[in-house]
Write a structure and sequence with these properties.
CATH class of the largest domain: Alpha Beta
CATH topology of the largest domain: Uridine Diphospho-n-acetylenolpyruvylglucosamine Reductase, domain 3
Number of helices: 11
Structural class: alpha+beta
Bound molecules: flavin-adenine dinucleotide
Order of helices and strands: EHEHEEEHHHHHHEEEEEEEEEHHH
Shape: globular
Helix content: 25-40%
Length: 287
């Protein structure tokens, strides 16, 4: 199918983008990489009159790593992340997880702003933003505001972005080099959306006990979630696979993953459990 007719503009500044969205409420839509939006338009699931293209806003393409944090402009693409040596050093978990996103052609165009706004429950970036306790910088007609990632997900493909707001940056705290981390994902074929995935990081105390554990999963709900019960059970304990087995058994019984015709709840739960175990095994194998 082909999309309905629409007009297309590519402004030079964020101010113009915000003004256009405000002047055409309900009729205008941002387009960034187009990898999620164009299929939606072609299936006629949305029919905006105007596409406001971010391609000329060069400030949105920038990756900045300071001593403490990393800022990714909303137009940073998956390939930019994959190739960045700075991110390999400061954001290894992000780089690893995003290597699972789609195929080269899509990775060459898809952007972080589009992924966050789209908020697909199976997408890798929202999970990583959640476990890293990211902040999202957005602009609207009144100026900039920051959204804590914990307040961002509202439901299935639904976020706390207001109408007319534009994602400008994703801000992530940097990883110290000694931090333990792991990422594991299960999908039917390489490049497919995840059926289940787990991202984990923690620090080890001088006595070898886990501290500050952060564990997030895809597949357990309509958006990525953190397993805070499991985190609390593991914190201040020395890691063993027996401890992890027991903690999973006692902490995950409240999960009720979504069911679809091809994936039962029991299968998805079993995959989530396996991904958590593999992510921890992965993290313990790192110096
Ligand atoms: C075959 C296929 C497989 C894929 N597999 C995966 C996968 O495994 N993992 C994964 O994570 N993704 C996957 N994707 C999705 C892909 O990563 C998309 O690129 C991404 O989700 C959206 O980014 P985009 O830049 O293309 O956004 P667009 O398609 O341009 O926009 C998506 C939505 O976000 C809005 N938007 C875009 N930018 C902004 C902004 N700055 N501020 C506010 N709103 C904005 C748009 O209005 C639109 O509603 C796949 C896509 C395809 C087609």
């Amino acid at each position: 199918m082909k999309s309905y007719n629409f007009s297309h503009v590519a402004p030079q500044t964020l101010g113009e983008v915000v003004a256009l969205l405000n002047d055409h409420p309900g009729e205008a839509k941002i387009i960034s990489g187009g990898q999620s939006l164009m299929p939606v338009l072609n299936f006629r699931l949305a029919k905006p009159d105007l596409l406001v293209d971010l391609r000329n806003i060069n400030d949105l393409n920038i990756i900045t790593c300071s001593n403490h944090e990393t800022s990714l402009g909303a137009r940073v693409r998956w390939v930019d992340i994959e190739k960045s040596t700075e991110l390999a050093f400061h954001q290894p978990l992000l780089q690893k997880a995003l290597s699972y996103v789609a195929h080269y052609q899509i990775r060459n165009r898809g952007t972080i702003g589009g992924s966050l706004a789209n908020c697909d429950p199976a997408a890798e970036l929202p999970l990583i933003a959640l476990v890293l306790e990211a902040q999202i910088k957005v602009i609207n007609s009144k100026g900039y505001r920051y959204i804590n990632i914990a307040d961002f997900f509202l439901g299935f493909m639904s976020t706390s972005l207001s109408k007319g707001e534009v994602i400008v940056e994703l801000i992530l705290p940097n990883f110290p080099s000694h931090r333990k981390w792991g990422f594991e994902e299960f999908s039917r074929r390489k490049g497919d959306f995840a059926i289940a995935a787990c991202a984990v990081w923690f620090d080890l105390s001088p006595l070898g006990k886990m501290e500050n554990a952060h564990i997030g999963v895809i597949g357990a709900d309509d958006y990525p979630i953190r397993l805070t019960g499991l985190e609390n059970t593991l914190n201040n304990k020395a890691f063993t696979s027996e401890l992890l087995d027991e903690a999973i058994a006692s902490s995950l019984n409240h999960l009720s993953p979504p069911v679809d015709p091809q994936i039962s709840q029991a299968y998805r739960l079993s995959l989530i459990t396996t991904m958590i175990k593999r992510a921890f095994a992965n993290s313990m194998s790192k110096n």
